[in-house]
Amino acid sequence: MMRRIYYIGCLLLCILLGFTACKKGNTYYENYSLKYTEYKGTTLQFLEEQGSTYDSLLLVLERVPDLRAKLGNVSEKTTFFASTNNSFTNAIDALNAVRQASNRSKMYLEDIPKTILDTLTYHYAFDGIYDTDALRDFVEGKEVLSIDKYRMSIQYKVTSASGIVGGGQQQLVLSDMNNSIFKRYWQESNTSVVNIRTTNGMLHILAPSHNFGFSKLAKLLNN
């Protein structure tokens, strides 16, 4: 009888510990993803200090001086979605694949007309602060105008982790709405890092799989 009571007690203790572990796991992922990375400098300074990770983006910003100045202006608050070098490689490779098929010479970032760079790069920048806290209540995403008044959408979501639905890290999905209310026409891209708070705004990093310009570069330069 005492042995039976002992086993029952052990079983109840294991169940209680298991429940506590699951609850702790949920809280861990939620709290981890809620943290902000504070950077004591402007958004432009952050990009410049990350080694070679943003070389292509910085090259583009040199040719889009108004946006570059905005990202370095401490008196303005701007939310910016940054693309790593890989995103530009994806866009240039897609562009040149089409050009090669029609026997045209290759193009590189420095060959892209400034007007096209302006248009595409502005779509990643927004006046004001848009972080995960500001966007979490918009289940279907929030339509936001970029600084050149182009319609974009930003959606909040939480990934799954350790079998827990919604228990992973927070992400934002940035979408080019292509001037349509129908999502099937949108081009979207996930973030890999969110909520980097700089002295003049909020910075999010797009996943390396992102195609700079939301796959528009090849179309614009091959018409």
UniProtKB/TrEMBL annotation:
Gene3D superfamilies: FAS1 domain (2.30.180.10). It comes from the Bacteria. InterPro entries: FAS1_dom_sf. This is Fasciclin domain-containing protein. It comes from Sphingobacterium zeae.
